[in-house]
Amino acid sequence: MTDGERKPDAPSTATQQAARPQDDEKQLGGESFIKEAGSALIHSFFTASKTIQLYELNNEAVKRSLSEFVEATKRIIRNEGKASLRISAEFLYINDVRIPMDSQTAGPYLYLIEEMKKRGVEAFEFHPDLEVEEVGSFLKTFFEIDEAEDAFEELQDRMRQSSIRNLDAMPWIERERRLTDAKQERKDIRSESNMIFFRTVHLMRGILQAIEEKHVIQVKKAKRLTQQMTDIIQTDESILVGLTSIKDFDEYTYAHSVNVCILSMLTGDRLKLYKQELARLGLAALFHDIGKVHIPSSIVYSTTTLSESDWELMKYHTFFGVVELARVKALNEIVDAMFVALQHHVHYDMNGYPQKPEGWELRLFTKIVTVADYYDAMTSSRSYRKVPVTPDKALRFIMEKSGKIFDPVIAKTFVQAMGIYPIGTVVELDTGERGVVVKQNPQSRYIHRPSVQIIDPGTEEKGPLVNLTERADGECRYRRSILRALYDLDAGVDKHSYFITE
Amino acid sequence: MSETEGKHPPAEIADEESAPDLQKVMTVMKCLTKYVAGMKIYAKNNPTLAKFAGEFRDAMQEFFEDEDELVLSIEQFAVKWQDEIVYENEKRDESLAFIFFRDGIGEVTLTKGVTEEELDRFVEIIKQEFHSTADEEDIVTKLWKTDFRFIAYRVLEEYLSGEYGDGEGQEHERKPSRLDFDDHEESRPSLEDRGRVIVEPDDPIQSIDGYMRSLAQKECQSGDEVEKEAAFQRIAEDLLKVAEEDLNDRHEQLRFEKGSESLMDFMDAFLSFTLLSHNPAAVRDVTNVTERFVDYVLEERRLKTLAGTLALIREFMGGQSIPDDIASLCRSFEDRLCDDALLSDLAHEIKEWNKKSNDIVEYLLMAGQKSLTPLCEVLRQVEGQKVHREICNAIVTIAGKNIAAIVDRFEVDSAAIAFDIIYMLSMANPEGVSPKIRELIHYPDSLVKAEVIEYLGGLEGEEVIPILFEALEDPEKTIRLKALEALERIKSPSVLDKISMIAFGKEFTQKSMDEQEAVFKTLGRLGNEETVDRIGKMLEKRHLLHFSKNRGNKYLAIHALENICTDSSQKLLEKLSKDSSSQVRGRAYRARKHLRKLMENPQDNAGKADSHD
Q1: A461 bridge partner residues
Q2: How far is A255 from A251, CA to CA, in rounded Å?
Q3: Looking at residue B18, what is its pLDDT?
Q4: How far away is chain A from the Cα of B22, in angstroms, using its nearest Cα?
Q5: Which of A1, B2, B52, B148 could be cross-linked to B38 through a Cys-Cys bond (beta carbons 3.0 to 4.6 Å apart)?
């Protein structure tokens, strides 16, 4: 649902009274309001849950946290006519708007998901007349119930006994999964990610060939694919990002564009861009290097240092990109891509190329794509540099050039999203084990503690999946920590099996 | 909209088990079609539309009594359920199937539990699609961004590769164009390089984990493993923390970029590259791309973009000293954006006054002189005072003092056009009297003539006098009276002579009483000592003074005298105030009072004549 298009359910009389938006809230767009107010609701729910487990109901801290929680629900009801909190595909939704998780909100976010799941709760609906005492009574009840198969039934019974009327809990049902299946055939995010990745690579090959044969770029297909990629990135980006780490495809020329597209969208997601914006960003990123098709292969794939004149021509791919994109019939859909194609070698400090006769503004999408492009190019073997830079060095380079080549906020967000051991990195653990990083930890303090698929030392096949934040029983120390990243060629690990489906 | 009912009777096409459900699906489709059609016609709160919505929901509900999912397969002009056609319409601009199909949707699934809100939104999207323009989002994007929980769609790649739809995005042979590179052998962009960055693997870059570990080590040199871990976590948090304010700045930037006209922004940024005079190849590419933009803008015809492009090009031409060839190129863009056919087409889109008409007129105003002809033409096709006025205002703005020449070109074949002409002339206030006005004073419609006289009354100069004199001869009394009113405002001896001639002429008595009064009132407003004298003589000659006969003439005299600020006028009124008729006395008394006031303070009382009436 987009800004301004939100249509709340027909409110009841009681809801109508509460649904009078305050003037300041009216100023906020629907989705952006929900995201902001939703984050506040999740945070206050978390705080109230924690305090109520420590203190009695009459404690001042408890009262304060409960009252903040009630106010957070009412604020949403006032603006939207309703307030609900729902789990879907490991994300929290407020009124059907997905609330983004970042390093600062990850703790409360994951905590709520876990606690709701333990008790078989898929969603809560909050009513306009919700009272502080009622929430207190509900939370006490909620946390008294332990994880069990019939936890939800018990919760329902006890809520009835406690006369909790302004808060409804919905059971965890299979519907969500069935719906997801029907929607996007997303039974297996892994195969879905693979399908989208390779389809996009295939599309890029088709596009570049089409250009050579003087055909016009197919924007619609690319648009559909970036929309599907957006859905995946907003659900679980791990496989897609893992696929970008595999650099030995025969079709690397095409895969580079797709990698930059994925890495840009990942960064955009962490910057909390809306899904429409992510799709637009993806489309722009996909075509960032399209102009290279007009640079002679002898220059693009030159194994030696380019002569000054060849380098001059190489730099011209930014203009060629614009010229090529300008052929697209629906020019309005491709303007973002034209900006990116033209500007992606212009640095944050306005060095780089091309230099515009007068000062100009770098678009946000360009700043994102620049980081992703540098990262993917550095970590890939090139004609002029057979041995690529390792991801951890590339990330350090990005941090080091933050404020010069890269926008500092984008650089930080990119590193945060990639982790210091990006997905696909082969790592050596302090247990002597080796593993492949398969999922990042969203909390920046645990950036060095991702989830790792252990490599069986005997068979070299996939071993158990371990979360590096796990601690040894009764101890402060972690079970496993990363000692160092191994450059995957040296480690001799075949990463294909971790990310590519048959 | 044609549907399949009748063509494929359920009994013939389905096995016994699925037949009842097939009937239900056909009802769903029929209700959906009706609801979409209703949405196009009725306002959102219309009861008929509410009825259609209810029927559609009921049909859905009935289907979901036995089924969990309604999976509809989309073909070019048909919708199928379980291989049976449940909807068919081959008209591209009407077909529900085709609007899904053209964007590649091969399947739509509605799941049990679908809410009224989702159904309404779904139908709204379909309705919008029937009216969508090229610059709007396609149906897939609309469905995708709505994030339905119970409605899903599937895009089939093979549909996207077909020869269907509007051609956008289809792979097709491109026409030879300026954007081809065959002539690009000499391309050597002299874009100064100040930022080539090549990092080799053996460059001494520290790894990011190594860097962070070294920071942690520095912070916690003597701590144990747990303390070092805590230090690392703190450093990681500090190093990667993005301040809320910084994040908001980026969001703000994106909002700004989204809110602006991106194409314009790009052209604005890109046009400056034409100034790379030392790089002819680059300049040629930039100009070719800019030309493509102009082509697109002209093809798309979005008024905002057209106006933005025209403004941008003019600003570029005016803002700096640009080479002659670039200036000439920009002028050619300007000419194309102000092309006669374009302006005429746009002008002819105006039917009534609304936002779009306003935007069109704004653009025509920007285009200037070349818009005059289409604007004048369009006055003939529009109805309603507001739209006429707005177009006239635009014509006046563009034509300025040359308005007379413009209106003279009009063929006045309707009163509306005549009024427009008078309005434009009164707004522009050109020097002299337009020949068209001389023509309009004889226009058959009395309202037009009255308006012409009103306009002439507001003009200065002797030129208007003969025209108004002509109006005094008009067969219609209302026009003659209007002309008298207008003449009152012209302080000219010739006017006084003319009015005196009428007032004291032989044929005067043939006029109706109210016209006689009007003539004398006018005479009073214009009169002088000599006029009083003539009035006195008139009364004397007719032996009217002191006698209570022919009060009418005395009243006429009073009407004139009360506005002639002379002593003689006072004296004559004094005589009349001693008339044998009490009514004449009364009137004369009030007239004297009025005249006295007028004479004491002629400025304040100007225009307040006859106040005693």
Answers
A1: none
A2: 6
A3: 61
A4: 21
A5: B52
Residue type, A347: H
Q: Measure CB to CB from residue A323 to each of B113, B275, B288 and give the nearest one.
A: B288
CA angle A268, B257, B261 (to 5 degrees): 135
- How far A58 CA lies from chain B's nearest CA (Å)? 34
A402 pLDDT band, cuts 50/70/90, is very high
Residue B570, domain member (yes or no) = yes
Residue B473 burial by Cβ neighbours in a 10 Å radius (0-12, 13-18, 19+):
exposed
Q: A243 exposed, middle or buried (CB, 10 Å; 0-12, 13-18, 19+)? A: buried
Point out which residues pair with B105 in neighbouring strands. B155
Q: CA of A446: which chain B residue's CA is closest?
A: B233
Nearest residue in chain A measured CA to CA from B181: A294
Between CA B576 and CA B598 the distance in angstroms is 19
- B439 and B484 in one domain? yes
The answer to whether the beta carbons of residues A310 and A362 sit under 8 Å apart is no
Please indicate, yes or no, whether the overall pTM of this predicted structure exceeds 0.80. Answer: no
Cβ–Cβ below 8 Å for A357 and B273: yes
A56-106 pLDDT tens trace: 888 899 999 999 999 999 999 988 888 999 887 667 888 877 787 776 677
CB B481 within 8 A of CB B515: yes
Residues 232-291 of B with CB under 8 A from A: 232-234, 236-237, 239-242, 246-247, 249-251, 253-254, 257-258, 262-263, 265-266, 269-270, 272-273, 275-276, 282, 285-286, 288-289
Check whether residue B552 and residue B482 sit in a common domain. no
Helix axes B385-399, B355-367, angle to 10 degrees: 10
Inter-chain contacts counted by CB atoms under 8 A, chains A and B: 286
CB A351: neighbour CB atoms within 10 A?
Answer: 17
- Residue, of A351 and B604, whose pLDDT is higher: A351
Peptide bond into A108 cis (omega under 30): no
Q: List, in sequence order, every residue forming a beta bridge with A171; answer none if it has no partner.
A: A121
- Flag if A327 and B113 touch (Cβ within 8 Å): no
Together in a domain, B16 and B154: yes
- The answer as to whether B67 is a domain residue is yes
SS3 B78: strand
Quickly list DSSP for B337-358.
Answer: HT-HHHHHHHHTT--SSSHHHH
Q: Is the dihedral of CA A380, A382, A388, A394 positive or negative?
A: negative
CA A21 to chain centre: 31
Residue A206, token pair as written in the block: 């088709």
- Domain range for B108: 10-160
Low-confidence ranges of chain B (pLDDT < 50): 1-14, 162-172, 182-196, 545-548, 605, 607-613
Alpha carbon A492 to its chain's center: 29
- Tell me, yes or no, whether B27 and B156 share the same domain: yes
Check A224 against B263: CB less than 8 A apart. Answer: no
Question: Is there a contact between A323 and B246 if contact means CB atoms under 8 Å apart?
Answer: no
What is the domain count for chain B? 4
B486 with B510, same domain: the answer is no
Q: Which residues of B touch A481 (CB under 8 A)?
A: 229
Q: Does some domain include residue B470? A: yes
B residues 23-62 closer than 8 Å to A (CB):
none
Q: Is the domain of B99 the same as that of B26?
A: yes
CA dist., res. B439 & res. B411, Å (int): 11
Burial class (CB in 10 A: 0-12, 13-18, 19+), B33: buried
Q: Which residue from A103, A336, A355 is facing B191, i.e. has the nearest CB?
A: A355
Residue with tokens 């191994």, as numbered in its chain? A486
For residue B578, being part of any structural domain is answered with yes
**Final residue in a domain of this structure, among B299, B316, B337:** B337
Cβ neighbours of A97 (radius 10 Å): 21
Q: Spell out the residues 6+ positions from residue B416 whose beta carbon is closer than 8 angstroms to its own.
A: B379, B383, B388
